[in-house]
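Practice set, problem 2.
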Amino acid sequence: MGSLLVVEDDDATRRCLGRIVTRYRVVRFASSVDEALGLLESRTDWCGILVDLNLGPRANGGFEILERARERFPDVPCALVTGQIEVAVVNRAATMNTAVFGKPVGEAELGAFLRRVIARDHAFQTSLATRLEALSAEWKLSPREYEIVAWLVAGQTRDAYLLRSGMAETTFRTHMKHIFRKAGASSFAELLSLALRRLFSNEELTTNDDARS
């Protein structure tokens, strides 16, 4: 799995964001523009980037980070967090294909962004990621439930998911009960069949080599 970069200079906000996103991906934290730029230069395994707009004395420092991120990783999902949403900020973020969230931000607000991160990490084709997003909305899946369904659709096994995510088997079973109920399925096989029928016509799923290992 790739890493998620979170850039936030406020300790309380960083802890809050960390509690949410660390449940889904390995997180690398930075508290300044320079630290974040250094991480972007030294690593290439990013699956998502979540940045505060104003960092210390550098107003709009988040945009400096996003500009560099877009140069190096144009397809990685990015999101900007700000305490005051303004039209100019939203418009500039839109030119970078970056979502904008107002503080305080919680798991519900970050749900769509986290699903994009998961889809990116599985290297799903854009059309398939869009269909999976729609299916997730229809079934009202949480980001974690979405990740599990995405993992199964990508042809991976339960044991492999438990190994890579570090999730306890009892927790996994609880999530699966919720997914079965929401999807109207009673088994792994039925769930996968339902999902594949909804997601595919004649298109094939594309995953990266790492996801298959």
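Problem 2, part (b): a different protein.
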Amino acid sequence: MRILTINPNTNISFNKALEKTAEKYALSTTTVKVISPDSGPQSIEGSYDEALSVTATVKTFLEHQTDYDGFIIACYSDHLSTYAIREITEKPVIGIAKASVMVACTLGDRFSIVTTNDRWKPLLREAVEKYGVRSRCASVRTTGMSVAALKEESEEVVREKIEREALAAIEKDGAEVICLGCAGMTGFDKELEKKTGVPVLDGFVCALKLIELYHQYGITHSKRRRYSAPLGKKLKGFSEIFLSAYKK
């Protein structure tokens, strides 16, 4: 199968890291491409950044939808584009945050998310509430780094900061599973598992394996009600490609 991963920010250094992870974990019959929109914020660190990235992410999907069998939205948030794209395709689509949280619930009683800066605490608490697993979330902990710093700092410094918060989540908050709360944290999972002694989940890997499962099992999201096709209407100020997604 062919999977397109859309990184909603425009930092292509993240894309290279995600492709490296995909090479390690994808099935031999799976090819994974990682791209970013042509426009948008360099990193997503709050609702404003996310809002700016949504339309460009949907446009990127529309431009490539016929070439792939499944799609991953590689932003560790409850990114609106995931829901929008599900309305306009019958192919499987999933975001990395929901993928890791749902997998975490199968591996332990409670999980914690270790993410970048404090702005994400309320946003990710809202996300797990929406996913219906708030009682399973022990905590959302932050490293104090910006998203960009994940690539600007040395790997050793980044790993130490994630490890510090992961251990605190386990020892103080009662977490039994750790979710890495940013696409830029890809590749740190297995070494952190050795350090912490609990499962550490890379959201991108979780999403990748779920998309492969959906494809092999022949299932996708329901098109009844929530993800039914949007009703056709006139658009002002948008390119023709967006009109193509409307139900005729």
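Answer key, part (b): The first strand starts at residue 2 and ends at 6. The chain has two domains: 2-96+205-243, 98-202.
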